[in-house]
Every structure is written in structure tokens, then in C-alpha cells.
Amino acid sequence: MKSEQESSANANSEAVKKFMAERKWEMHSCSACGRTFFSKPFTKMDVSACGWHKCDKGEYPFRTYSKRKRMLTPAQINSRMSEYFRSAGFDTAIPMNIANFEGQTDLVIAGVQMFDDIIHRNQKIRNDKVFLAQPCVRMQFQPLVESQEGTSTSFVNVCIEKMGAEFFEHLQSVDHWCTILSKLGLHMNDFIVVMRTSIKDWGTGKFSALELFFSYGGLELGDAAYLLIPQPNRPAIAISDIGFGLERIAWAVNKTDSYFDTLMPWTATGTREMFDSCRTMALLVLCGIQAANKGPGLQFRRFAKVLSEKYYGVDVYSILAYYFDYWAQFIKPSINREAAIQLARLEIERFVNLKVCETLRLPPPRNETTEAYFDRLVYTCNINIYELRKAIQTCKT
Ligand SMILES: [Zn+2]
After folding, report:
1. Is 249 in contact with 184 (CB distance < 8 Å)?
2. Would you say which domain of life the source belongs to (predicted)?
3. Distance 316 CA to ligand 1 centre (A)
4. Among the four residues 14, 98, 311, 374, which has the most C-beta atoms within 10 Å?
């Protein structure tokens, strides 16, 4: 016998098929993974496979599609979206600090975590519907940044969230997303929508989620999930969670060769890994996170280590300042810019100081910049200037 969850999931996937058919989407079955997916009749996409990242060729054909006349920044796209959703009756929610203490992850990885205290701490159910532009960090992308276009460890999750949503309300929200994406110049003809039912567990028990993944010309932009989250002392909570990657939308809109083309200072050069590390580190420090051996502070330390070991000698501090200003467009800084850059600098140079200290068997560094450490070594400890200068060269890239 089927569980109640399973039969409602089946009813919902039938509702999706009906909803898509009414909007002239054609249904297909993927020759590679067997999933159901949808495309418009005049799509340019190859519809033999679903366009899911495991089934397509990993190319991004959208880059050759016709471009809009004027490029848009992520912040401009965000404000157009928030205006659209406000006019559609959504409230704008204030983003959370990236350090997460309520849920199961150290850092906020998705906007839906605005409900963490309700899901995990039995707080009162909410019934409002909101638009949220939530800065997020996903560490699992770190090894992919350099090798795979379109990935970054930090991004803005633009989402609409509705707790207690009926399934038809969820589909209405999907409709809203199709409208705003079209308004931004991303035509539905160029999308493939993949349907998936998956089993999740957010710590309160297993549940099945019905998800629709939106792939634009080979680039996965976001997904619409309908969740029924089990609760120990009350009925399962329904959530309509529809989230997109703002920077990916910006890439799709602007159609530059590389995802990072518009996500780095115009005059700077360097690897994606370097820019990505600065970008995420700036977000962490802007939220008041300090280096530590566990939790959010450990992630901060990891990026500092990459920057000190592989990129010391590059002016990463002006790049950090650039990204501080980027994130400040989305989340209120809990620290001023100069203090933030100084904290990042101390952590990056801590590794450099330790390396020089070890190489030359010097008195240990304090919590100080490399300049301050050397100053102390030269004027207080009588260390040879030329040995120090030679040692510092070995730390530089
Ligand atoms: Zn597939």
C-alpha cells in the first residue's frame, strides 16, 4: 500500500503535467535518465536528453542566443524581480546573516532556511509569502570553480517562499517565475524543465519533494520545490520553495563567454579560484565571521589559506574590497569595510608569517600583518633584512 505522502506526490506530478500542457509545454522522457521533462514546441534545444547536468554535454549553448541590447548587473536584475514580486503580492524579506545557528549547516546554503527556526524549533507556522534575495555559500562547489564554468562558492539565492502553500498556489508561483524570467529576456522557448521526485531529510524525518529544474540553454538556473516537512508534534508543513541563482540568471541574461566575466573587477586578472575565494571571503567577513577551527570561522580560514598559499603577492585586498561592495548591495554589513579587509588580511598573512617564521626559525608571529611582523623582527629582534626579503619571495606566487 502506498503511503499518503507517495499518493499526494503522484497527484502533484499529475497536476504539474496538466499545468504544463495548458501552457503549451510538451512532455518528453529523457533517453539517458528516464526523467520526465518539458520543452516548448519551437525549442532550439536538443530534446532527446533532459538537459539535467548529468545528461547533457556540459556545454552552454545559451551563450550563442541573441542578446538583449543592454547588459544588466545582478543588483539591477534583483531589483526588477523584487518589484515584480511586490506587485504580485509578495513581501520582501530581509536576508539572514550567512552564519547559520538554527539549522543543520554552518553557513546558509538556501533562502528556505528562513524557516529553520520553525522547522527545527517548533516556532509558530508562518503564512505570508515572501521574496528573498539571500546570499549563500556552498562549499561543495569549491573543487569545481576552476574546472567548471558557471560555478561559484557564493551566490545570491533569489527565491519566493510560502509556508502552508497549497499545491495550486505553488504552481501559481511557478507561473510568476516564468513571467519575470521572460520579462528579463529569457524566453520560455529556450528552457527545459525537468521534473524529479526526490527523498530528502532535513533532520525531522524523511519526506518526498517534487522538484522542477529550470535549465536555460544548458544552464541550470534554479528549481521549484514543493516540500512536505515532517514535524514531531504537529502535522507536516507544506512549503513552496522556488529559488534561482541570481548570478546565473545574470550570466544567462548577459551571455558573456565566462560566468566570471561580470563578477570580477574589470581591470583585474587572475584565476577563477582566486576571484571566487576573495568573493566568498568578503561575504563571510562582511557578516562578522572571524577565523576559527570549526563552524563558519573554519570556512573563512580555508579561503584565507588558499589566498595566502597560492595568491600571496597579488593585491587581493583591493579585490576583497570590491566584493565587500558587491555583497553590501544585498546584505547589511555588520562591520565597516576597512575593518573587514583588515580582518581578512590578518588571517591571510597569518599563514605567510608562520611560513617565514618556520623557514628562518624566528620568534613566533602575533596576530599581525606581515609588514608589522617584519617591522618587529627588524627593529626589536635584530633580524637580517635581506634574509626576510628573500624568505618573503618564496611565499609569493
Ligand atoms: Zn536526463
Report:
1. yes
2. Bacteria
3. 41
4. 98
The reply to whether 189 and 310 lie within a common domain is no
Kindly tell me the burial class for residue 18, based on how many C-beta atoms sit within 10 Å of its own C-beta (0-12, 13-18, 19 or more).
exposed
Ligand 1 center to 254 CA (angstroms): 27
Sheet order of strands, 219-229 included: 26-29, 36-39, 191-201, 206-216, 219-229, 237-245, 154-163, 129-137, 91-92
- Write out the residue range of the structural domain in which residue 78 sits: 4-261
The length of the chain in residues reads 397
Phi-psi region of 255 (alpha: psi -120 to 50; beta: other; left: phi over 0): left
Q: How far, in Å, is the centroid of ligand 1 from the Cα of 115?
A: 31
Distance 34 CA to ligand 1 centre (A): 6
Cα of 51 vs centre of ligand 1, distance in Å, is 6
124 plus 215 within the same structural domain:
yes
Residues 198 and 333 in one domain: no
Instruction: Specify whether the CB–CB gap between 183 and 165 falls below 8 A.
Output: no
C-alpha cell belonging to residue 317: 585586498
Cell representation of residue 391: 624568505
Q: What is the pLDDT of residues 228-248, one digit of tens each?
A: 999 999 999 999 999 999 999
Last residue of a domain, one of 214, 234, 261: 261
Three-state secondary structure call for residue 71: coil
Lowest mean pLDDT among 55-59, 73-77, 81-85: 55-59
Question: Quick one: 219 and 280 in the same domain?
Answer: no
Same domain as 13, residue 138: yes
**Residue where a domain terminates, one of 206, 227, 261:** 261
Query: Which pLDDT does position 1 carry in this prediction?
Result: 42
Distance 110 CA to ligand 1 centre (A): 24
